[in-house]
Automatic annotation (TrEMBL):
The record's free-text note on cofactor binding: Binds 1 divalent metal cation per subunit.
Pfam families: Amidohydro_1
Binding annotation for substrate: A144, N223, A224, R231, H255, L311, A312, G313
Group of enzyme by EC: hydrolase
Catalytic site positions: D278 (proton donor/acceptor)
Identification of the protein by name: N-acetylglucosamine-6-phosphate deacetylase
Family: Belongs to the metallo-dependent hydrolases superfamily. NagA family.
Entry keyword set: Carbohydrate metabolism, Hydrolase, Metal-binding
């Protein structure tokens, strides 16, 4: 079998190996460590050398709506293919197709497209399931989602989605204080779906009731949720207080102040803190006017807002989220990569195969330059993106 070796600064779960080496055979990793410790020399082994770059595990985005002027809610396989291909250029090797609050017929169309796309086995970022963000949210914290399309999570409204997706429904974001929410959380968690508290105006008691019912995650912490007040800690207080619950954050330093990001990181630690993009179709497109869930979004200096000024998704990518955590928040390279790859893999229960550079795991590998551009993306041993040429 052919082998490929990556030479550079290898980022494992615990260390950054300066003279690192990752060796791939077929679709799997067979060696991770120092170059001097590798004894399996093969004259035909392909060498990919980026000595000043970071070699990291493929990143996993559990909350991304789209990019490259494409959106999951387009409801067709061509858009999903374009999103998956574009994500490779940002170092994402697995993702959840994330929906949003729209008429239920549009949501079902988007979900059917996901199932159709998964049958195609495209060689791009792997679409591993669905994140249903809405329509089961609070009108008071709807963010950039349409209030007219918000629904209560009754079994009548949920069952068609469950019947269609089954185990491919990975995450549902919902507000625990709205009617039928606690029953929905119990139903969803009994079937293995992660229930995430988000787009919520819950008090801390209401958020805690959601956790007791089975929710164990918080969607884009601080954004579109009741904030921390000393007399009413709200959903944010619940997230920070309950150590077992995980959360994700849009670390573009616009949605959340760097100091707030740091507080959350120090409270939750890298084990319970996931980086997401919340990317929408404007990602990679520059300034302009775009559509998000049937609403006009204006992007200026990479910040997306509705006409009323509401933040509307983001133009962040995970490689830049990692950069921001290191350069602005001050986390280590190892921890920043962990939150973009390992923590999401653990949350989704796929860490046996993905999320870190370890022997036996899938060869999902990304090479980041010293300014965090993506030089190489490999998925299961196949090179799917190359930016800057490497030296043999």
């Amino acid at each position: 079998m052919s082998r490929t070796a990556f030479l550079g600064k290898v980022v494992t779960k615990h260390h950054c190996i300066e003279d690192g080496l990752v060796v791939v055979e077929d679709k799997k990793i067979i060696f991770v460590g120092s170059q001097t410790d590798f004894s399996g020399n093969d004259p035909e082994m392909k060498i990919i050398s980026y000595p000043n770059s970071l070699i990291i595990p493929g990143m996993i985005d559990i909350h991304v709506h789209g990019n490259a002027n494409l959106d999951v809610m387009d409801g067709n396989v061509d858009s999903l293919q374009g999103i998956a291909k574009s994500l490779c250029s940002y170092g994402v090797t697995s993702f959840l197709a994330t929906t949003m609050t729209m008429p239920i017929a549009k949501i079902m169309q988007a979900l059917r497209a996901v199932l159709d796309y998964q049958k195609r086995k495209e060689p791009y970022a792997q679409l591993i399931g669905v994140h249903l963000e809405g329509p089961f949210i609070s009108p008071k914290q709807k963010g950039a989602q349409k209030e007219d399309d918000i629904l209560h999570p009754t079994q009548f409204n949920l069952q068609p989605i469950l019947d269609l997706l089954q185990e491919k429904l990975k995450v549902v974001t919902l507000a625990p204080e709205i009617p039928n929410a606690l029953e929905a959380i119990r139903l969803l968690t009994s079937q293995g779906t992660i229930c995430s508290i988000g787009h919520t105006d819950a008090t801390i008691e209401e958020a805690n009731q959601g956790l007791i019912a089975g929710a164990n995650h918080f969607t884009h912490l601080f954004n579109a949720m009741s904030g921390l007040h000393h007399r009413e800690p709200g959903a944010v207080g619940s997230a920070l207080f309950n150590h077992e619950a995980t959360c994700d954050v849009i670390a573009d330093m616009v949605h959340v102040h760097p100091s707030a990001v740091k507080i959350a990181f120090e409270q939750k630690t890298r084990e319970k803190f996931l980086l997401i993009s919340d990317g929408m179709r404007a990602v990679g497109m520059g300034d302009g006017t775009f559509d998000l869930g049937g609403q006009k979004v204006n992007v200026h200096r990479c910040i997306a807002r509705l006409d009323d000024g509401t933040l509307a998704g983001s133009t962040l990518t995970l490689n830049r989220a990692v950069q921001n955590m290191i350069e602005t928040v001050g986390t280590s390279i190892v921890d920043a990569v962990y939150m973009a790859a390992t923590a999401p893999a653990k949350k989704l229960g796929i860490d046996v195969a993905k999320g870190s550079l370890e022997i036996g795991k899938d060869a999902d590998i990304v090479v980041l330059s010293d300014n965090f551009d993506v030089n190489i993306t490999m998925i299961q041993g196949q090179l799917v993106y190359q930016g800057v040429p490497y030296s043999d």
